[in-house]
Specification:
The protein is mainly alpha-helical. 49% of the residues lie in helices and 6% in strands.
Length: 144
């Protein structure tokens, strides 16, 4: 399974936001803290915003916050927000995949792998990945 740079950067950015939900962070601050290329992060955060995983506010008091509590955002949400399909074969969905003859059972293996990955990623929230002290902080959703 290939984990894209977008999925990795998106998860790291969200974890940075989740670690202190009481204050907004700029893309510059996230990029610096996580050593992520700023321009790439800017586009990734845009995708996260469109998916509702982050919210933003302009101005000197602005920045980015989580769009939902860290305990409600799974790694599956993040991957699907930035990459779309969890697993593809040559860029195509596995849904209609069909092989003839001796390879006819292979698409079921690929779909099972995708299902297992979805279960694993869907069972991990941002909150679960945070160090213990950060998990105990209250959410700032709706606080601004």
């Amino acid at each position: 399974m290939h984990i894209s740079a977008k999925a990795d950067y998106a998860t790291r950015a969200l974890l940075e936001l989740a670690s202190d939900p009481g204050r907004p962070l700029s893309c510059e601050a996230i990029a610096s803290s996580q050593e992520i290329p700023f321009r790439f992060l800017k586009s990734v955060v845009g995708e996260l915003r469109r998916a509702g995983l982050v919210r933003s506010q302009r101005g000197c008091e602005g920045g980015y916050w989580l769009g939902r509590p860290a305990g409600e955002i799974t790694l599956l949400d993040v991957v699907r927000a930035v990459d779309g399909e969890l697993i593809t074969l040559r860029g195509e969905s596995l849904a209609g995949l069909d092989y003839p003859g001796p390879a006819e059972g292979l698409p079921a293996v690929w779909r099972r792998l995708e299902s297992d990955a979805a279960v694993a990623l869907g069972g991990l929230t941002l909150a679960a990945l945070l160090p213990a002290p950060a998990r105990e902080q209250p959410s700032a959703i709706g606080a601004a």
